[in-house]
């Protein structure tokens, strides 16, 4: 029986490791990874995540498609004055490229490791992926990978992977370091 082709947008190796193992074990899919993450800041962070993923996928012989373009300025222009919608814009951009690649490559499905993180806006990712799938003519494969959260952390630590401490965008980096202070009434 021929396996269905699944393109997996990968935000980073630690978020990919557990979903990959489970998808591989199902033996349903011919898996291919896809790297495109224009939101990551600074460039050193982008490089660490890309290089960690490259090392992991080479060791596992996982075929990859790389859109290795650092497009920070483009990302910032799109979210400028819409910082509150930055996640929606970010999900849309990354999943749109994944859907385009999946459609051009005759994949049966596309998905994302963003569905692994318990810190991401899960329903928004699903809604965005499904809408883009309809638009591009390729199905969005939905699976709640958050059930593998602890397993992924353990596996990535055991593999000595670089593990980031924020989603990647400059805004999440700010939130990581900024103390949460109650807003003052300035009237």
Encode the helix/strand succession as letters.
Answer: EHEHEHHEHEHH
Q: Could you describe the largest sheet, including whether it forms a barrel?
A: 5 strands, parallel
Instruction: Tell me the Rg in angstroms.
Output: 17 Å
What is CATH's topology name?
Answer: Rossmann fold
Strand % is 5-15%
How many strands appear in the DSSP assignment?
Answer: 5
Shape: globular
CATH class descriptor name: Alpha Beta
How are the strands ordered across the major sheet? 3-2-1-4-5
CATH superfamily: HUPs
User: What structural class is derived from the secondary structure elements?
Assistant: alpha/beta
Written description of the protein model:
- The protein has 187 residues and is of the alpha/beta class.
- The protein has a single domain, classed as HUPs (Rossmann fold).
- Helix content is 49%, strand content 12%.
- It contains seven helices and five strands, in the order βαβαβααβαβαα.
- The protein has a five-stranded parallel beta sheet, sandwiched between helices.
- Helix 1 packs across helix 6 (149-158) and helix 4 packs parallel to helix 5 (122-136).
- The model has no long low-confidence stretch (mean pLDDT 89).
């Amino acid at each position: 029986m021929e396996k269905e082709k699944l393109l997996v947008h990968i935000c980073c190796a630690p978020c990919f490791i557990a979903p990959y193992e489970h998808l591989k074990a199902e033996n349903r899919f011919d898996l291919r990874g896809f790297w495109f993450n224009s939101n990551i800041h600074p460039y050193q962070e982008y490089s660490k995540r890309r290089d960690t993923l490259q090392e992991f996928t080479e060791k596992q012989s996982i075929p990859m498609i790389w859109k290795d373009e650092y497009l920070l300025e483009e990302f910032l222009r799109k979210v400028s004055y819409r910082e509150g919608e930055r996640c929606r814009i970010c999900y849309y951009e990354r999943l749109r490229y994944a859907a385009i690649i999946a459609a051009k490559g005759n994949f049966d499905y596309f998905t994302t490791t963003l569905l692994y993180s318990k810190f991401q806006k899960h329903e928004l990712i699903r809604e965005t992926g499904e809408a883009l799938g309809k638009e591009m003519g390729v199905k969005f494969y939905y699976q709640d990978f958050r059930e593998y959260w602890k397993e992924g952390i353990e596996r990535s630590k055991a593999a000595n992977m670089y593990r980031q401490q924020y989603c990647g965008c400059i805004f999440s980096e700010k939130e990581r370091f900024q103390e949460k202070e109650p807003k003052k009434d300035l009237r």
